[in-house]
Amino acid sequence: NAQMVKAVPQPTGLPCVIVNDGAIQPQSLQFVSRTEGDVKKALRRKHLEINEVFLMIADQTDDYIIIKKES
Fold it and tell me: What is the rounded CA–CA span in Å between residue 65 and residue 44?
Protein backbone atom coordinates (compact mmCIF):
# COMPACT_ATOMS: atom_id res chain seq x y z
CA ASN A 1 0.00 0.00 0.00
CA ALA A 2 1.75 3.12 -1.23
CA GLN A 3 1.41 6.31 0.76
CA MET A 4 1.78 9.77 -0.69
CA VAL A 5 4.39 11.87 1.04
CA LYS A 6 4.26 15.60 0.61
CA ALA A 7 7.79 16.98 0.57
CA VAL A 8 7.84 20.73 0.80
CA PRO A 9 11.22 22.29 0.05
CA GLN A 10 12.50 24.86 2.52
CA PRO A 11 12.61 28.39 1.11
CA THR A 12 16.17 29.44 0.38
CA GLY A 13 15.58 32.82 -1.22
CA LEU A 14 17.30 33.97 -4.36
CA PRO A 15 20.96 33.09 -4.79
CA CYS A 16 23.18 36.14 -4.83
CA VAL A 17 26.82 36.69 -5.83
CA ILE A 18 28.58 37.90 -2.68
CA VAL A 19 32.17 37.69 -4.01
CA ASN A 20 33.02 38.56 -7.61
CA ASP A 21 36.60 38.10 -8.82
CA GLY A 22 38.04 38.36 -5.30
CA ALA A 23 35.97 41.40 -4.29
CA ILE A 24 33.22 41.29 -1.67
CA GLN A 25 29.92 42.80 -2.86
CA PRO A 26 28.55 44.78 0.15
CA GLN A 27 25.02 45.27 -1.22
CA SER A 28 24.75 41.55 -1.94
CA LEU A 29 25.86 40.75 1.62
CA GLN A 30 23.00 42.87 2.95
CA PHE A 31 20.55 41.12 0.62
CA VAL A 32 21.41 37.69 2.07
CA SER A 33 21.94 38.94 5.65
CA ARG A 34 25.66 38.16 5.76
CA THR A 35 28.72 40.07 6.94
CA GLU A 36 32.26 40.24 5.63
CA GLY A 37 33.21 38.15 8.68
CA ASP A 38 30.75 35.43 7.61
CA VAL A 39 32.40 35.30 4.19
CA LYS A 40 35.92 35.08 5.59
CA LYS A 41 34.87 32.37 8.05
CA ALA A 42 33.29 30.28 5.28
CA LEU A 43 36.42 30.66 3.15
CA ARG A 44 38.70 29.66 6.05
CA ARG A 45 36.72 26.43 6.41
CA LYS A 46 37.61 25.71 2.77
CA HIS A 47 41.23 26.86 3.26
CA LEU A 48 40.77 29.70 0.78
CA GLU A 49 41.67 33.37 0.73
CA ILE A 50 39.34 35.97 -0.77
CA ASN A 51 41.77 36.67 -3.64
CA GLU A 52 41.52 33.00 -4.71
CA VAL A 53 37.75 33.22 -5.27
CA PHE A 54 36.24 33.90 -8.69
CA LEU A 55 32.59 33.67 -7.53
CA MET A 56 30.97 33.00 -4.18
CA ILE A 57 27.20 32.64 -4.16
CA ALA A 58 24.91 32.57 -1.12
CA ASP A 59 21.22 32.48 -0.32
CA GLN A 60 19.35 32.82 2.98
CA THR A 61 20.61 29.42 4.18
CA ASP A 62 24.14 28.74 5.45
CA ASP A 63 25.15 27.15 2.16
CA TYR A 64 27.64 28.69 -0.22
CA ILE A 65 28.77 27.90 -3.75
CA ILE A 66 32.42 28.80 -4.26
CA ILE A 67 34.18 28.83 -7.63
CA LYS A 68 37.93 29.25 -7.41
CA LYS A 69 39.94 31.33 -9.84
CA GLU A 70 41.88 29.34 -12.41
CA SER A 71 45.61 29.25 -11.80
Answer: 14
Beta strands in the chain (DSSP E): 16-20, 23-24, 53-58, 64-68
- What distance, in Å, lies between the first and last C-alpha atoms of the chain? 55
Q: Which residues of 51-71 are buried (b: 16+ CB within 10 A; e: fewer)?
A: eebeebbbbbeeebebeeeee
* Residue-wise pLDDT tens digits, 50-62: 999 999 999 888 7
Q: Left, alpha or beta for 33 (phi > 0: left; psi -120 to 50: alpha)? A: left
DSSP state of 64: E
